[in-house]
Amino acid sequence: MARIAIDMDGVMADTTSHYLKYYEEEYGIRVDPATLAGAAEGEGFDDKEACRRYITSPGFFRTLPVMPGSQEVVKALYDKYEVFIVSAAMEFPLSLKEKLEWLNEHFPFISWQRVVFCGSKTIVDADIMIDDHDKNLRYFDGRKLIFSAPHNLHINDYQRVNSWEEVAAALLQEQLVKG
Amino acid sequence: MARIAIDMDGVMADTTSHYLKYYEEEYGIRVDPATLAGAAEGEGFDDKEACRRYITSPGFFRTLPVMPGSQEVVKALYDKYEVFIVSAAMEFPLSLKEKLEWLNEHFPFISWQRVVFCGSKTIVDADIMIDDHDKNLRYFDGRKLIFSAPHNLHINDYQRVNSWEEVAAALLQEQLVKG
User: Fold this and answer.
1) DSSP letter at A80?
2) What pairs with residue B117 in β-bridges?
3) CB contact (8 A) between residue A123 and residue B126
4) Which of B81, B79, B70, B78 is nearest to B3 (CA)?
5) N or C end of chain B, less CB within 10 A?
6) Per-residue pLDDT for A87 more than 80?
């Protein structure tokens, strides 16, 4: 059974929407996500330190919105692949507990045995990786899917998926054809 | 640079001593660690549920004693190998924060990028693994060192190390010879 490593932030969780919401609450400005395109994560905002403040504040990770379609597709993947949730959570120690609670609430079918919180993802041994960060995909040895986010739209090195529907098309349809 | 995955509980942290201390505090009995030999972790005590209670109680992981010699040897390994600390912490969510604080206190030279908290360790890609549990070593693909603990003394499938001095002899001497 092929093993998939699935990222949380920006893939299962809609981090960009959450940034926009926090930013609007702080500054009263509704930023157009299109204006963030191509900038490194958080640096597309006028206040380039804002997102860093948000992700280090209690509650940010616990209240992240679920990425549309992710629950259904991760569930389907879970039945056909060895799914591991791999999050680079170690940089933000406060996030560990919140991320685990978030997973238990929104993806209760995922066993604790399939959850990995790490710093560098270079240690991950899997066949497929779904991630929104070039820094994680770059050192990975298997099939790479880049999940679209404003900060990665200029990267053309990997198979791009713009939504969970496209993940399903890439990884579940094939599976059916093979089976 | 070869990569080593080093376990925390029973390897960097002296879990057995901590069990014995908690048990003595609860029951007033100083258990001889020799009587635990060969039993599964925690099951060598008359009260077989005791250790499970201890590891799910706040503070247990934060106050673990450091395994003698581990600080010096892990430091030396850190300079010569790509060291990752890999702990199967996900079963006990309370332990995540405590384990990170414990690492920061006793092994401050270890970068957050080199810390992995997981459930199953099957996802770990490394060249060498030091662990006290057969269940972790069994599925590992590289060189395996079993760090002696009462619950593994009957296992003869891996290179055994009885102390951090023996880890140094196995992994640092060779390195010097090779270099």
Assistant:
1) H
2) A117, B87
3) yes
4) B81
5) C
6) yes
Map out the domains of chain B as residue ranges.
3-14+65-178, 15-55
SS3 at position B169: helix
What local confidence, expressed as pLDDT, does residue B179 receive?
Answer: 44
Q: What is the ipTM of this complex?
A: 0.92
For residue B171, CA distances in Å to A123, A134, B6, B127, B145 come to 20, 34, 12, 12, 10
CATH class assigned to A3-14+64-178: alpha beta
Active-site pick, A9, A14, A131, A132 = A9
**A3: closest chain B residue by CA:** B123
Residue in B97, B100, B123 nearest the CB of A125? B123
Cβ-Cβ contacts under 8 Å, B97 against chain A: 93, 96-97
Architecture in CATH of B3-14+65-178? 3-Layer(aba) Sandwich (3.40)
pLDDT at B176: 52
